[in-house]
Specification:
The chain is α+β, with helices and mostly antiparallel strands and 259 residues long. Helices cover 14% and strands 35% of the residues. Strands 1, 2, 3, 4, 5, 6, 7, 8, 9, 10, 11, 12, 13 and 14 form a 14-stranded antiparallel sheet that branches. The longest helix is centred in the C-terminal third of the chain and has 20 residues. It starts with 33 loop residues before the first strand and ends with a strand.
Length: 259
């Protein structure tokens, strides 16, 4: 990562003290219940000349940067595979150290979302697996499971019907395994093509309880990147360039409630 090129106008959140038995860098997540993730755009991509690696600023609700996330993928696969491409996304702390690493496998697209289910592996710190996110079959909805490091199910993610999802706001619910309790919510607000194409307006807004385990918060954050890719892949506009379906993601992880 070219750490010196991060936007200087965004102030970094004050570094909290280290907490025993917590993965280094995740102690930030113990102090907040709100995150905002803004996708940054490269001029070449905005002009439609070249598909670049995606980068994101992860901030608190005061607009202070907590993390910086950067995708690393093969240029050839990025151009020809689009959202189906495999990639590694690294989340960095304020001194440039690797905090979280996400590995997404290559999964080809087809007319139905469940032909090649998406999956990713999450490590924090890099090299130490904390969990996985798997898409699983449903005839009409986008469905995922968040698993721990032993691949034991922690929660489900239920999305909308795959048809025309690029043309409307998207909502994903984080559910208990019996699907009776809503643990959180991911909402995606489409703010208009011209605004998204020429501004850095793509945002994930994330809210979650203070007392949620930081590893689960990290898995939910990384799941959002997979959902971003999957939404584009299954939007009904998969034959268009990925940039034409850029949007604003708002993720809210609220207190549990009955479904």
């Amino acid at each position: 990562m070219d750490f010196c090129n991060i936007q200087p106008t965004i102030q970094w959140m004050q570094t909290p003290g280290s907490i025993p038995n917590y993965p280094p860098g995740l102690e930030y997540l113990t102090q907040i219940n709100h995150l905002r993730v803004c996708q940054r755009f490269d001029l070449l991509e905005v002009l439609g000349l070249f598909e670049t690696n995606k980068t994101y600023d992860v901030m608190n609700n005061q607009g202070q940067r907590i993390y910086f996330a950067e995708e690393k993928s093969n240029c050839f696969l990025r151009h020809f595979c689009g959202p189906s491409r495999p990639f590694t996304m690294t989340v960095y702390g304020n001194v440039g150290c690797d905090v979280i690493t996400m590995h997404k496998a290559l999964r080809w697209s087809c007319c139905w979302s469940n032909c090649c289910p998406q999956k990713l592996k999450v490590e924090a710190p890099p090299g130490e697996i904390i969990g996985y996110v798997y898409q699983y079959y449903h005839p009409f909805l986008l469905m995922f499971k968040i698993k721990n490091e032993n691949k034991e199910d922690l929660m489900k993610i239920r999305g909308p019907c795959v048809v025309s999802s690029c043309l409307k706001d998207l909502n994903f619910n984080f559910l208990s395994l019996d699907e009776k309790m809503v643990i959180g919510k991911i909402s995606n607000q489409w703010t208009g093509f011209m605004r998204e194409r020429f501004t850095n307006a793509d945002k994930f807004r994330i809210q979650f309880p203070f007392d949620l385990d930081v590893k689960i918060k990290a898995l939910m954050l990384e799941a959002s990147f997979l959902i971003w890719t999957t939404c584009i892949l299954n939007s009904g506009h998969k034959n268009q360039p990925e940039r034409s379906c850029q949007r604003s993601l708002a993720l809210s992880f609220a207190s549990p409630q009955q479904n």
